[in-house]
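Postdoc handover notes: sequence design on the structure in folder B. Input tokens:
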């Protein structure tokens, strides 16, 4: 067993822009999904099999809060939640359909 092996490097925009700062990451390895939450309540879902040079398969935005900072995310095969601050909020989606269920 070789343990962890570096496979891909992912980029999510200009790192000097605060809106591109990645605050949270989660992976659903059994369905090959990478999820990131950036400042401003933007969350993106990527197909790991396609690699880092492809567009996200889903982009969700919780609202118009450019200063929102995600503190944690939780994702399963159907639902996604992000909790954060500035302002304090929790957003829940059916991420496959892109439907926000609550905020």
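Designed sequence:
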């Amino acid at each position: 067993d070789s343990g962890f092996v570096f496979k891909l490097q992912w980029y999510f925009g200009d790192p000097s822009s605060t809106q591109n700062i990645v605050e949270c990451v989660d992976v659903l390895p059994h369905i090959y999904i990478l999820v990131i939450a950036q400042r401003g309540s933007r969350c993106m879902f990527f197909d790991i099999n396609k690699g880092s040079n492809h567009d996200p398969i889903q982009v969700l935005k919780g609202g118009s809060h450019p200063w929102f900072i995600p503190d944690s995310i939780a994702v399963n095969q159907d639902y996604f939640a992000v909790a954060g601050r500035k302002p304090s909020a929790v957003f829940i989606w059916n991420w496959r359909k892109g439907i926000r269920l609550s905020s």
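Context for whoever picks this up: The chain has a mean pLDDT of 87. Don't rerun without checking with the PI first.
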